[in-house]
Each structure stands twice: as structure tokens, then as C-alpha cells.
Design a protein that fits this description.
The chain is of the alpha/beta class. The chain is built from 12 helices and 9 strands. Strand 1, helix 1 and strand 2 form a beta-alpha-beta unit.
Amino acid sequence: MKFSIVIPLYNKAPYISDTLASVLAQTFTDFEVIVVDDGSTDGGAELVSFITDPRVRLVRQANAGVSAARNHGIALARGEWVAFLDADDWHHPGYLETLVRVQARCPGADTVATHYLPVPDTLDMWPPRWPEMPRTPDIERITDLPRRWMASPTLCTSAVSVRRARLLRMQPCFPPGESHGEDLDLWFRLAEQAPVALVHAPLMAYRLAVEGSLSSGHAPLAMPPFLQRMEQRALAGAMPPARRGSALWLVAQYQLSLARQALADGSRREGWAWLLKARRAAGGKRWWLTAAMALFMPGPLVRNWQRWRVRRTVHAASPAEAG
């Protein structure tokens, strides 16, 4: 079997049927679907149980979080590759077929991903209005994911597939009990071991701001655990030396973002504390601009400037940059 598609399900009854329909409409048909119900209470699991296609398996577990659900699915997978799909996202009909071609062209990559299409959270958006796809999309071979991430966020869970053998050696792949950056933790650790192949075509549709979605909340004013662990690996020499500098630079950029958020919230002391922690970025323009904010700009002005930048970024972002 070529693919195991792992879908964690928790209270997404309005969406799961369309999500599964997008999988069952794939032009490449050598796959299984493992839906891991994480203690849903809205009847979504029952909708899955009505599907008669033998490739779809429903597995139930007591509520333990999205990381545990994905790890459970990985443990049950029988395919050569594991593809991930959230219960409110969709795959283009040619998604798996494209992955097969890219896997053949990039045999050294253990992670293959595609760009994606952000769509509004409206039920009438099914099926998504896919743009015209190139016959032979460009493939980017990424050997330094932190550096690439600073250019634009690169991977989205529902558009990623990984060799099962690699995942089994890394279990638990997703940090148990975590739901903020738990996917990024895995992508960065995978990229430290083997290249990532990124297809420059949007072959997954990502539903924006679903109510109750883990990705719709605001990040806390703290370093996420996955970046803390990245910093620890870099300082301990537990990653390739060529990746150490870019990993620590990425951590410093996040610390600068926290400094700006603290300043926008009116906490100048906390802003300075984060700014000093980000001293690895002190040679960069962004560090000096943040220092100027801490010295001269009142909190409301920083807050308005941050909002303006977010609006400008959202307006200008392409599907490849929106994640």
C-alpha cells in the first residue's frame, strides 16, 4: 500500500463528510484512510461509520488531544507513506498522484509537501474553486527549513506526507498533550534529518478560522515548546552544525515578535526582556527597529503599527505564504 491518510477527528461533524469525499475522489487509489475519533460528542464519528468504502477505517479513543490522535493513526498505518489531513480541510483530486511523481523525482526526501489554498469557512465553498494546475509543477528541495521558514512559512499539516519508516523511528512523533506548534515540532525535526521536497502548486484547501479550530486562537506571549526544544537541540549540538545558526536565528526572530507584542500591550519592561533574549539577532535591522520602538514609541502606537503590518501582510500573502 502506498499511502495511509491519517485524519484526527474532534467535533467536526459539519465538515468530515466533505473532507472524506475529497480523499475518496483521488485519482491515485492505492491508499487507506484512518480516522481517529478523539472522543467527539457531536456525531461526527457516526457519520464516518456510515461510509461503506473498505479503505476507510474508524478508530475511537478517549479524548487525548490532536497529537495523541495523530500518533495513534501513525501506529496503525500500513502505507509506505503517511499523509496527514485535518477533518475540515480538503485534498485536490490529484494530490496523491502528484505526491507519487514527486517522491520518484526526489528519492532522498523523506517529507513531501505542497502549497495550499486558504478558503473562507463557509459550507458553500465545497468543492473548492481550484486554480488551474501546472502540468509539471516546480519542486523546491529544502535542506535548511529554518532559513526557508524565515522567507515565508512553508508547511501546513494537511499538505504534508512523510515516509512511514521515518515516522515509526520518531514515535511519539507529535508531542503528546501539545496543540500549539505540535506539527511544526515534527516538521523541523524531520528536516534536520533529510531534505524536504515542496511542490509549488496548491493541492490542499485549508479552511480559515473554523470555530473551535486549534489554529484559530492567538499564540500566548511565551516561547512555544517546539522553539524551546529547537534552541536546546542547537545549543547541545543535537542537529547538523550547518543548521545550528539558522535555527538559533529563527528562535531569535520569534523572541523579537514577543518583544513587539509586549510593547504593544504596554509592557515595556517585558519587551526589553524579550529583546535582550533575542540578542543573537542584534546585527539585524529588525532587532534595531524593535529597540527603537522600546525606546521611543508608546504602546498604542506600537499596537497600531503592528495591526497595520498584519493587514498589509494578509492582503499581500499568496497561498504559499499564508501558513
